[in-house]
Amino acid sequence: MATRTPALLTLEQIERLVLLLHGRGYQVVGPTVRDGAIVYDVVEKLSDLPVGWTDEQEAGRYRLRRRNDEALFGYVVGPQSWKKYLHPAEVRLLTAERSGHTFRILNNEPAPPRRAFLGVRACELAAIAVQDRVLQGDRYGDPIYAARREGIFIVAVNCTQAAPTCFCTSMGTGPRVRGAFELSLTELVGLGKHEFVVEAGSDAGAEVLAELAPAQAVASQATCQEAEAAVERAASQIQRRLDTTGIRDLLYSNFDHPRWDNVAQRCLTCANCTMVCPTCFCTTVEDVSDVTGTHAERWRKWDSCFTQNFSYIHGGSVRSSAKSRYRQWMTHKLASWIDQFGSSGCVGCGRCITWCPVGIDITEEVRAIRESPASSSQVRKESSHGNP
Amino acid sequence: MMATAATVDPMLPQPYSVRQVVKETSDTFTLTLEPPALEPSSGVYRNRFQPGQFSMLWVFGVGELPISISGDPAARDRLVYTVRSVGQATQTLVSCEVGDAVGVRGPFGTGWPMQQAQGRDVIVIAGGIGLAPLRPVIYEVLHNREKYGRLVILYGARSPHDLLYRRELTAWARQRETQVLATVDYGGLNWHGNVGVVTTLFKYVRLQPTRSLAFACGPEIMMRFVARDLETNGLARENIYLSMERNMKCALGFCGHCQYGPHFICKDGPIFSYDRMRPLLEKYEL
Asked: What is the pLDDT of residues A72-130, one digit of tens each?
């Protein structure tokens, strides 16, 4: 096992890191600027990164803004998460061909490229661990996820600034990266310097780091302290709080809380929150065939519990009201997820707050329920639908 | 290579051949599917299912459906499904001809607790097509008569024309230690049997509540009242089992559709004991 003491990399060495990963057969994907947002895409060189850009986020608001430095990772999180690559929005499950009475499955999907993820934040690393549990840690594993997940080279980045929508400190996921990564970076920029404290988190990471020949094989204590302080600064910037104390029972026992009616007045059931959420995993399957009827395909696509069709069974949708759909999403994310997979489904990235067109804030909704829990005597007896 | 991929990937359907299609009622059909033999001409099949389990049936180019297995668990060379034609995929499925291929994944889900039922009376309560996932229970009890106590079958349908497996119902009623009672919502002139919801049949049954296990499948509203009445009749909640239904796409626990509170109906169910379901059944739009 190689040493795990922090080293120091220059800006040029980050560029070399990208090339070196290419050389090792990885497709490097990371943050790029497109359509007024920071989105994940293929990164060929350093200048593909959002050099000198930052993001301003608030409930229902996201804007890119120029920084007064050349920081590579001087933004927080954008609308996309790494599930774009690990659990894609659309993926073909199978192609089949009819011949006579029968059919055969043509399993001709090309293997996904081996990828390196550059710029994975602490909350996103936690989100990948959550999806690992859902998609390959249960009774059945998803072979599509497994093929894409295996051998990913993760270059994580410690946040040195926070958005007003962030609440990773409440969910215990950040801003310092923890868990499985190959390399982690802390960017130090300003006063004529631009360098990166780097730590290896795995043998593969240590090997790549050794090949980079860091500017300082062991970062000075002062530099390490500076990096530590930068991450601390991000933590101290975080204003939003979500009190998770007893949250499972809180939400289970407030199924009839009047707040669900309140949020349903604002929620458009547009499903944006589920699309940007790095842990939301629900999918549907669409069947297509050609006009001759001999060629058929099945496509798996992201789905959302905010759609009416999601819960359709004969006789109608189980969750037809907006209230029931918002309640399902939030209760699943924060409560039943714990029963199902042993952890919260929320990592505190704040995307659902930023990208909600009407600025619904999950932390605010939890607070509202916590501050006036419906006691059992106040709960309206459900009699209108004929409960025995 | 392709066959290998199909056997390891739980998301890829295997082509089964339609052996028989029987019309049960005006809109409901029973399909018998023959699996591909493990080795051609070896006669060895790998079908095993627990009564109460379901498969995902894929209709080429149209769609996939979760369908309960309604056949005899002892017959390993076939899988039997009873399907009501209500939409495009089920319509295409029941229009299959002998020899056509249907894609099959599974079996999935939990079964009825047959082990626990041994030595006890088995009370089967079905509504409409809810009899389909209970028929394997009936076969199992009748084939292994000495293992179980009395068999009581309470069956409710909309009309006499909607009763499934009519000839079998009559045959089952003639078996020893077996009581079969049917009721319909609308009887018509030629119906001399019971009229009313299935719970109205309880008064004709001599229940031994501490020695019985009850299995119910039907519309959710029916199961709520059935479970309540069984409890009133002295059955403990943990001795009442329900087969639940929700939308399903994958049957593997990761499409998210079948969530019912903390449960995934596809892998934690579809069979649940009433003591686990009761708090959830009370919640509207859960």
From this structure: 999 999 999 999 999 999 999 999 999 888 999 987 678 899 999 999 999 999 999 99
Averaged over B76-81, what is the pLDDT?
A: 93
Compare all CA atoms of chain B with the CA of A296 and give the residue at the minimum distance: B61
**For the segment B240-286, what is each residue's pLDDT rounded down to a tens digit?**
999 999 999 999 999 999 999 999 999 999 999 999 999 999 899 99
* Residue A227 neighbours by CB under 8 Å, 6+ apart: A6, A158, A186, A188, A197, A219
Residues of B193-213 as b/e, b for ≥16 C-beta within 10 angstroms?
ebeebbbebbeebebebeebb
CATH number at residue B65: 2.40.30.10
Helix (H, G, I), strand (E, B) or coil at A118: strand
Closest partner residue to A103 among B101, B225, B286, by Cβ?
A: B101
- pLDDT of amino acid A375: 55
Domain containing B268 — which CATH number? Answer: 3.40.50.80
Predicted local distance difference test score (pLDDT) of residue A2: 44
B126 and B251 share one domain: yes
* Residue-number span of the structural domain to which A35 is assigned: 7-90+107-237
The reply to whether residue A281 touches residue B262, judged by beta carbons under 8 angstroms, is no
Comparing C-alpha atoms, which of B135, B223, B242, B128 is closest to residue B185?
B128
Q: Are B67 and B55 in contact (CB under 8 A)?
A: yes
User: Is B237 in the A-facing interface, judged by CB distances under 8 Å?
Assistant: no
- Smallest Cβ distance to B284: which of A94, A296, A385? A385
Distance from CA of A243 to the nearest CA of B (A): 21
Residues 6+ apart with CB under 8 A from B134: B51, B52, B112, B124, B126, B215, B217, B243
User: Does B285 sit within 8 Å of A284, measured CB to CB?
Assistant: no
* Distance separating alpha carbons of residues B245 and A342, to the nearest angstrom: 25
The residue in chain A having the minimum alpha-carbon distance to the alpha carbon of residue B285 is A319
The answer to the question of residue B286 being in a domain is: no
- Chain A interface test: which of B255, B268, B276, B280 (most A C-beta within 10 Å): B255
Q: In the listed set B108, B127, B154, which residue is the last one of a domain according to the structure?
A: B108
Domain boundary among B108, B135, B161: B108
Chain B residue with Cα closest to A337: B262
| Per-residue pLDDT at A4 | 72
Confidence grade of residue A291 (pLDDT, cut at 50, 70, 90)? very high
Count the Cβ atoms, other than its own, within 10 Å of residue A383.
Answer: 7
Say if the ipTM goes beyond 0.95: no
User: How many degrees, rounded to 5, is the angle at CA B85 between CA B82 and CA B86?
Assistant: 130
As for how many domains chain B has, the answer is 2
Q: Which of A284, A313, A320 sits opposite B246 (nearest CB)?
A: A313
Partners of B281 on chain A (C-beta within 8 Å) are 387
Task: Tell me if chain A has a CB within 8 Å of the CB of B233.
Answer: no
